[in-house]
């Protein structure tokens, strides 16, 4: 990797990495997150950029006047899912700093302010809602709603912010700040294999699938695991298990995806039949109608299963992100700039344009700001796992592509 890229990677890599799993545990407002934020500020300062943390905890590193308006902004996030990979988020932030280094090396002259961002709490791993920092800034999450968010230990978001040294008093919409952004480009490791299959190093996002998170609460009756006859049980684990299997089948039939990846059981004892099994569904689909169909089918299957086991069920939709179609103006300009710069020549094809089922801050911001995404090839497509990977030369191709886009957008 180029010296700058390599040294940034080497500094960031150990932060929040679990020695056992090799995965990352960088939940928002934890110690690991604080170390990542310190790293971000040091990178900004080392480059003479003006570092600031906005009211919602998002970090910005500015080149030029932050108040001038029409800024070109690039960046991503540094937090991770539990035992997440090294690239999801950090590749975008490191590539942004490396692309700026490349532009300075080219000796370009900037005609617009440039900023690099780290959006806080993109994964939503701790408080259950993804993209908290960008949702707050974009007014898609109110201060009141944010104050309701609690982690598994009952620590509220504002408490966690305060303990991490960030005053939560003024969290909320930041229209002036977003109004000063003329274009936002997020580089991200692809979370899928489209580029691997097409043989391209980089690609452009067309859309983000509609997706959401639903909480299924199966209420049964706690009882003794050893003395309660099977016919006398109201065991919520059974309808939960049936629902997990039904979700996979309904998603397969609908051409969607559905995952029950998180569960909580009360009282959670080996020798106790649970009183409550709480399961979280993450479901996504290429379009809204398919998503509605598959979630309705899963809810119906859960209700039938609960009824047959004498268990009560409540379903709560905890979050939802509608389909994001990235605007053609910036997306096509990015494709033009990449074409002019010769990206894709190796394959003789135009830069591939691909949809994704993964949510991103860019998806949230696209409602307020012209936004585009650049993907870097992931040879296995694996993400949200310690196995997540991107090859060195693909990462550097991503940096060059981002630099070419930023030069075209921000320079005279
Ligand atoms: O869940 C997502 O798609 C994103 O990685 N937060
Ligand atoms: Mn992610
Ligand atoms: Mn991400
Ligand atoms: Mn993202």
Automatic annotation (TrEMBL):
Alphabetical UniProt keywords: Hydrolase, Metal-binding, Zinc
Binding site for Zn(2+) 1: 77, 88, 188
Binding site for Zn(2+) 2: 88, 123, 384
A Pfam family reported for this protein in Swiss-Prot or TrEMBL: Peptidase_M20
Residues annotated as binding allantoate: 213, 271, 284
Cofactor: Zn(2+)
One GO MF term: hydrolase activity, acting on carbon-nitrogen (but not peptide) bonds, in linear amidines
Keyword Chloroplast assigned: no
Classification via InterPro entries: Amidase_Cbmase, Bact_exopeptidase_dim_dom, Peptidase_M20
Note accompanying the cofactor annotation: Binds 2 Zn(2+) ions per subunit.
Family: Belongs to the peptidase M20 family.
NCBIfam families: hydantase, PRK09290.1-4
The protein, known as: Allantoate amidohydrolase
Organism: Streptomyces tsukubensis
